[in-house]
Amino acid sequence: MRRLSALYWLLLCDVAHSASLLDRGQYLVEALMACDNCHTPRSTEGYDYSRRFSGGSQVFTDKDYSVRGSNISPDLESGVGPWSDAELKAAIVSGVSPKGRLAPVMPSESYRALTPNDLNAVVAFLRAKRPIKSDAPPQERHGALEPRRAIPGAETPLSDAGLADPLQQGLYVASLARCMSCHSGETDGAPDPERRLGQGGRIFRTPAGATVASNITSHPTKGVGAWTDQELKRAIIEGTGRDGKPLAPTMANLSKAHFSKMAERDIEALIAWLRTTPPKE
Ligand code: HEC
Ligand code: HEC
User: Based on the domain organization, do 135 and 157 belong to the same domain?
Assistant: First the structure.
């Protein structure tokens, strides 16, 4: 009897453990890493969750590639169902698939910082989704497909112990949410978070028009140094500018669909970290 209840207890622990792993994976994917943004097709109302992760609608074209977000549902033919955990992890944090280097649109540089536990959680969450078949045209890639640069300090996995420090936590959130991939200035056509962290200037072209990513360094006039925490929080989770008007869809769609789900602790850490970025003009 005692043995039975011990077994039962172990089983319960295991179920609870995997539930919390899935919850954590869901939080990371939905509130911070926004995989849907490129990997889920869109309808006029937003993401088509009935075909979640079966591949994105948007085609990204550059001289070296023409790709769309792949089918990352567990479908055995058109998705990543047959991939091993190690293969999935390599695609997420290193931008390499079993067929070779992925186009740098897949933002692996932002995900390299994932702690081992969080990377397990993301993989578990993806694997628990419904397999969806798709028939997207093959991806086109040529050239060297240079990986993009990570934020200094977020180039390798962070540790759970390290994340106890709120500024490390803020850096972690900024990295996973790709803030600095969009908001850093460019050098030779690629975001340069080493020299131009948060400086702004990248141009995003969408059907709604072109937008320039803002300077979000601590600079008091060119950046967001003079904004209050409340104003920053509102911009991040609602997509509303300092003047109360909606920000362009490149930012506002992410805010509404994803960053609005951020935990209070993560928002506070992110804002505290943003305030430590060196002012740039
Ligand atoms: C900014 C857009 C974007 C975001 C955000 C994004 N991806 Fe990707 N991802 C891509 C693109 C584009 C490709 C295809 C690249 C190629 O084929 O060269 C890709 C490829 C992949 C692949 C390789 C699949 C294959 O069949 O080769 C995996 C796995 C993957 N992404 C997982 C993820 C996960 C998990 C997330 C969220 C944690 C994520 N991606 C977020 C754009 C994105
Ligand atoms: C896909 C690219 C992209 C990502 C990812 C992104 N942003 Fe933005 N963000 C933009 C663009 C483009 C604008 C300019 C919108 C406008 O001018 O209406 C913007 C505007 C802002 C603004 C308003 C600044 C101002 O001066 O009005 C803030 C603050 C901001 N982003 C912070 C962040 C933070 C923090 C993150 C990460 C949690 C983030 N953004 C992620 C593209 C992005």
Answer: no
